[in-house]
Design goal:
By secondary structure, this protein is mainly alpha-helical. The chain folds into two domains: about 80 residues, Glutaredoxin, CATH 3.40.30.10; about 150 residues. The chain has twelve helices and three strands, in the order H-E-H-E-H-E-H-H-H-H-H-H-H-H-H. Strand 1, helix 2 and strand 2 form a beta-alpha-beta unit. The longest helix has 27 residues.
Amino acid sequence: MDYVSVEEARQMSGLRLVLSPGVPGPWSEAAKAICYVKKLSYIPVRQEIGGENRALKEWTAQTTAPVAAWNDEPPRSTWIEQLFLFERLAPDPPLIPADIADRVLMFGYSNELCGENGFGWSKRLMLIHPTLTNPQASEQSRAFATYLGNKYGYDPAKAAAAPARCAEILRALGARLEQQRAQGSRFFIGSQLSALDIYWAAFAALIEPLPHELCPMPEAFRRMYTNTDPVVQAAVTPALMEHRDFIYRTYLQLPLDF
């Protein structure tokens, strides 16, 4: 990708996505994937992972990615705001169900994946916990873990509870997928692709990243992302990972570009 700076992006119009070069963060990959499905073109904007990002904070009141900016509207830094923006800019294909019951289900499950204290949030706590509790950790790794810990409200008790929280969410998603399969659907909600299918495809990287030839992420991040916790692993069903592969193979762009 050819990234522009935050300062440059602020002077531009159209759709701009603030992303972290070199790192396939699940929130960012989900935003990119939704844009791909909807054929929304955007200008990628550089965020320095772990950096001060002063210009980004001045623009968006926070320092992390992804952020979606459309013309002169306020930048959107949460997954749900971004989804509504993308849906408005490109209503077809719809990724938010029209039926209210399906819509409630989709947003509920999506929040368990993407929202505060959800799967992605809890996995981040699990990733940084070993570093923040290791007195032998390097200064650089501790600084990065502290940076993430400040964003995700790290404390040891929350980190200790995170595997059970992740497993609970995975079991619920697995049960939903099996229920849908029994009714003849290949999707989490109804009979067509929704944002939830895309969110799961992106967030499944926090259990098992796609192979290197499809996702050439730095090996240090691959090791961090690959799940080794037995509580979490016990909740991962083959059907869940098969669904991840089906969504990527059928709807999303490969290899990942970040």
